[in-house]
Amino acid sequence: MPRFATIDVGTNSVLLLVAERTSKGRFEPVLERAEITRLGRGVDQSRRLSPEGMEATLEVLTAFAQEARALGAEGIAVSATSAARDAQNGKEFLDAAQHRAGVSVEIISGEMEAQLSFASVHMDFAQETSGPLLVIDIGGGSTEFIYGNKAGQVEFRHSYDVGSVRLTERFIHTDPLSAEERERIASFLRSTFSTLPPPPPASALVGVAGTVTTLFTVQNRIEPYDALRVQGGTLLRSEVEGLADQLCGLPLEQRRALPGLQPKRADVIPAGALILLEALKALKVDRCRVSDRGLRWGLLAHRFGAV
After folding, report:
1. In whole angstroms, what is the distance from residue 242 CA to residue 236 CA?
2. What percent of the chain is predicted at pLDDT more than 70?
3. Which residues make Cβ contacts (< 8 Å) with residue 170, sequence separation at least 6?
4. Where is the Ppx/GppA phosphatase N-terminal domain (predicted)?
5. Is domain 111-290 given the CATH code 3.30.420.150 in the classification?
6. Rounded distance, CA 47 to CA 2, Å?
7. Any residues with CB less than 8 A from the CB of 100 and at least 6 apart, and which?
8. Where in the chain is the domain with CATH 3.30.420.40?
9. Is the peptide bond before 2 cis (omega within 30 degrees of 0)?
10. pLDDT tens-digit profile of 176-223?
C-alpha cells in the first residue's frame, strides 16, 4: 500500500505522521512521533528565530524525514506555523531545511492552519456528533477557532496570536505564577476572545494539539502517553478549572514530576491551561472532546487525498 508522510513544525514541537493508504482509500498510521524543540523561543519579542531553536528543530526535522523515507513514504509534506510566520528570518530556516533535510517547508497562514485542523477533526468526530463542530487548536504561538457543520464546511475561522509559549514569555516571570500574572493572562484572553461570535446551538467542541492532550493525560494520570486512551476523551470545564489552579500553583520542578506531563512542556502548560479555560468560558460550553490528531492529519488529507 502507498505510504505518505506529513511533518508539522510548530512553535513548540515537531510532529511526524507516516500513514498508509488502505484499499478502501483511507489512511492508517504507520508511525507517529513528536519532539519538543521550541522553534519559537523568543520570537514574540525578537521577531527572529533563535539559532538554538532552529538547530534543535532542524535536527529533529532531518531525523523525521529520514525515518519517513526509510518507511517508504512516496511524498513528504512539511508545514510550519506561527513562529515561522512571525519571524523575520523565516527564509533562513526554510533554506536550511531544504539543505539539511531535503524537504520543502511551507509556511501556512493561520486561516489555513485552522482549515487543516478542522478537516482532521471532521474526519474523526463528525459521525458521532449530532450538531455542528467547534474546533480549538492551541499551539505554542497561536490559537485557532473553527466553526463548521457536519458536512465539513467551515463557517467561521480565526487565528489569534495567543499560544502557550507566547503568553509564557510575555506574562510569566515568577515561579510559580503570581496571582497578578495569572489575572493579567486571564484578562488579556478575555479581551482577545471577546470578538468570537456565538457558536451555533448544540455545537460539540473538540480540542487538538499538545496543550489539550497534555491536560487530559495529567487529569487522568496517563503515563506513558497512550494515543488510544487520549483520542476521543472528554475534559469538563470544572476539570480544566482544577487543572489551571493546580498547574499555576505548583513550582516548575513539581510540575515536571506530574504523571502525564512531559517535562519539556512543564514551563508553558499553565498558560496553555488558561487559554483553554478562557476559551470554554468565551464559547459558553462546559466540556471539550480531545483529539490526539490534528494539523498533520488535515495536511495529509489536503496534500495526498484522504477519503
Report:
1. 10
2. 99
3. 44, 45
4. 20-301
5. yes
6. 40
7. 58, 61, 62
8. 3-107
9. no
10. 999 999 999 999 999 999 999 999 998 999 999 889 999 999 999 999
